[in-house]
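Hi support team,

I've been running sequence recovery on a batch of backbones for a student project. Most finish fine, but this one hangs at about 90% for roughly twenty minutes before it completes. I'm not sure whether the input is malformed or the queue is just slow. I've pasted the structure tokens below so you can try to reproduce it. Let me know if you need the job ID as well.

Thanks,
M.K.
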């Protein structure tokens, strides 16, 4: 059985792989709807929703409540800047016995909803299910509402591909009998009645923004799912029954509807016909699909197939937004911190949703590899990706908005719209602007004003109503030009910023000479002297030409274009900023753009690189470059901690590199091995997955095989990779 179903999972992945590679491209092209549509608040402002699902833990907890306490909500609202939450509720918890409702459960749900709404957050109540319900090993429907046609829930083992459990005959029958609305009509009737009870309970709470009609509807009948018949008939008919019944109770809140999950989550087109609202006035419907590129969902390395699926996903979702005439809020996206390339995936998918004008709820708030915190409520690295500058409320008609990760550039364009009141509100997280931000507005000087609340990190902006269109830009005052392969920052010789001073690649030490401001004219201006710019000596675009500081003069010798990690010179865009001799020197120069270690840059907030010892919890030994010998292939061992440079490390989450302080050109290396028991060494930092690791604050896992974890043995012995779930102290490391 296990082998058979594991093969089934591989068969489905193989089919999706075959379909996905057609038209494969490494470029993430984003499609947009023909018309921007947004949810609006009581003042007519367009809303952009960023938040999380709360929470997966509620699916099987004894009381069906999420893990959170009220202080977690306060953190989401103020520290993380989220304005939205998708709260899971369950039919089986609302109506545990046929016709008998659990009002104590509803009271507990209401208490948690009000934790959010008291803080001004928008709450979406999601009627959740996975694998139909509790009677067949899933969650959602109560056991009494589970018609399986005599099939008993079996041990349908599908390994890691849990979603293939939908092929269990008992689950197929349960879904089929629910959707058909023929022999078991009572199933949908009771579901709708339970939903009406929820709508009645929250009718008076204006910050409950709406209801998700069903999480990830699944056909049960695989043939109907693949052909689209399920969506065209069963699912469309279900929405036609449910929406009018909810509108009898709640005429004004938004109703969020989903297509089927199977295929659509991966990037295939939906077959759901236009969903209609029955309320008087403008419809208040929201399209709420999910996005999980299939290989990313299963924890595999982020790759071009995922990007192809994301490209297709945006194309089909944009067309479906036009079909339904609705805004879009993505109900779920997420992934594991262990997934190689996960941070880049988050950057890409969230920027894609910016470009589509969509909101989102991350899956989920629970502690762990998929969550924002670990079991001790300490932040996971992914939070720095999820926390973005974004327009929470736009006082007009949005044209576009986008946040650029790393550089922390944000641009919003919107037009005046009659009847809209109140300011535009933009969340600007202090963590990305440690020395503050620069705000520019296209309105005439003196005709607009702004206020920034340091506690909530929200900027309120009142623009000039006489101006038809407004462009708002936000960027850091200063940032580092960071070389991730070398773990160095661009600074100047002796910290001097005068005409002709050599620019250098240096250890990042927080010195003022390592701070740069991106000018509106594409110049890079020194924090130490704003009138000094990064300059190509003599204005000559030739190889090995010195790069220096010089009085800013607006010429092409001082203009730079950031292009996928390269800083191209405006003198000749085939010439790039470069560390001479491939990074073995520290002098900055101009050279042919070839990429690689000495030409790859990233904008980042000003920071001092903190090299720390990595100490094992089991034996107190430290990660050590054997003998301090900095050469390709040297073993890394566990050794008594002594504080030397060969035991000091820097983890760079954006690249996955773990640099040695002894010589930061060298990184921890798993030697390309994927088997348990293999040893580690060091190697010159290059663009190779052999040198990339995920560290979640405890375990260190190689990109090559995230089921392995770095483990310490006895003193003096090589450090190895071992198969581990992360529970053993032998694979736990802390930086100190």
């Amino acid at each position: 059985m296990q082998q058979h179903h594991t093969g089934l999972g591989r068969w489905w992945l193989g089919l999706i792989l075959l379909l996905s590679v057609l038209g494969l491209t490494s470029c993430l092209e984003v499609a947009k709807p023909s018309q921007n549509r947004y949810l609006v608040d009581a003042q007519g402002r367009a809303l952009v929703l960023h938040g999380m699902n709360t929470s997966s833990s509620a699916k099987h907890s004894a009381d069906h409540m999420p893990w959170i306490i009220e202080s977690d909500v306060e953190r989401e609202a103020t520290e993380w800047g989220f304005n939205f939450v998708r709260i899971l509720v369950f039919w089986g918890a609302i109506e545990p016995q046929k016709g008998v409702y659990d009002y104590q459960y509803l009271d507990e749900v209401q208490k948690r909803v009000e934790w959010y709404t008291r803080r001004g957050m928008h709450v979406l109540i999601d009627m959740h299910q996975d694998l139909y319900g509790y009677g067949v090993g899933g969650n959602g429907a109560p056991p009494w509402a589970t018609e399986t046609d005599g099939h008993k829930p079996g041990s349908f083992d599908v390994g890691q591909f849990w979603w293939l459990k939908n092929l269990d005959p008992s689950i197929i029958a349960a879904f089929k009998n629910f959707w058909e609305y023929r022999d078991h009509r009572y199933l949908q009737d009771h579901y709708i009645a339970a939903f009406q009870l929820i709508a009645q309970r929250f009718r008076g709470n204006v910050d409950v923004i709406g209801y998700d009609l069903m999480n990830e509807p699944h056909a049960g009948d695989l043939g109907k799912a693949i052909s689209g018949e399920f969506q065209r008939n069963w699912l469309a008919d279900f929405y036609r029954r449910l929406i009018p019944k909810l509108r009898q109770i709640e005429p004004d809140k938004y109703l969020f509807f989903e297509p089927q999950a199977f295929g659509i989550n991966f990037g295939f087109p939906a077959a759901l016909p236009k969903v209609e609202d029955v309320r008087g006035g403008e419809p208040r419907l929201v399209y709420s699909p999910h996005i999980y590129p299939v290989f990313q969902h299963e924890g595999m390395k982020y790759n071009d197939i995922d990007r192809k699926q994301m490209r297709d996903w945006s194309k089909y979702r944009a067309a479906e937004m036009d079909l339904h005439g609705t805004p879009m809020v993505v109900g779920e996206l997420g992934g594991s911190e262990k997934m190689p390339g996960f941070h880049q995936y988050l950057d890409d998918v969230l920027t894609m949703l910016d470009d589509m004008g969509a909101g989102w709820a991350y899956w989920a708030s629970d502690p762990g590899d998929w969550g924002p915190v670990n079991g001790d409520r300490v932040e996971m690295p992914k939070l720095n990706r999820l926390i973005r500058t974004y327009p929470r409320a736009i006082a007009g008609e949005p044209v576009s908005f986008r946040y650029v990760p790393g550089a922390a550039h944000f641009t919003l364009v919107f037009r005046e719209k009659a009847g809209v009141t109140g300011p535009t509100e933009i969340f600007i997280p202090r963590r990305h602007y440690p020395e503050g931000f620069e705000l520019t507005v296209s309105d005439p000087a003196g005709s607009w004003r702004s206020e920034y609340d340091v506690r909530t990190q929200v900027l309120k902006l009142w623009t000039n109503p006489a101006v038809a269109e407004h462009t708002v830009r936000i960027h850091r005052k200063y940032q580092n030009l960071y070389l991730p392969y070398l773990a160095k920052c661009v600074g100047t010789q002796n910290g001097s910023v005068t005409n002709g001073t050599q620019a250098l690649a240096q250890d990042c030490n927080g010195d003022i000479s390592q701070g740069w401001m991106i000018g509106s004219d594409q110049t890079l201006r020194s924090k130490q002297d704003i009138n000094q710019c990064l300059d190509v000596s003599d204005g000559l675009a030739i190889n090995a030409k010195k790069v220096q500081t010089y009085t800013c003069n607006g010429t092409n010798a001082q203009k730079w274009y950031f292009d996928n990690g390269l800083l191209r010179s405006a003198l000749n865009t085939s010439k790039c900023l470069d560390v001479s001799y491939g990074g073995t020197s520290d002098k900055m120069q101009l050279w042919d753009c070839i990429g690689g270690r000495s030409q790859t840059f990233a904008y980042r907030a000003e920071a001092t690189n903190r090299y720390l010892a990595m100490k094992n919890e089991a034996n107190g030994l430290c990660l050590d470059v054997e003998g301090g010998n900095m050469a390709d292939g040297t073993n890394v061992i566990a050794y008594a901690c002594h504080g030397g440079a060969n035991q000091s490390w820097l983890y760079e989450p954006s690249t996955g590199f773990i640099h040695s302080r002894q010589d930061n050109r060298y990184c921890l290396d798993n030697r390309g091995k994927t088997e348990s028991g293999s040893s580690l060494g060091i190697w010159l930092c290059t663009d190779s997955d052999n040198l990339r690791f995920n560290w979640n604050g405890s375990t260190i896992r190689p990109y090559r095989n995230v089921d392995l974890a770095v483990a310490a043995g006895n003193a003096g012995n090589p450090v190895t990779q071992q198969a581990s779930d992360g529970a053993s102290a032998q694979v736990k490391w802390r930086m100190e």
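--
Follow-up from support: It reproduced on our side and the slowdown came from queue contention, not your input. The chain is about 20% helix and 25% strand. No action needed from you.
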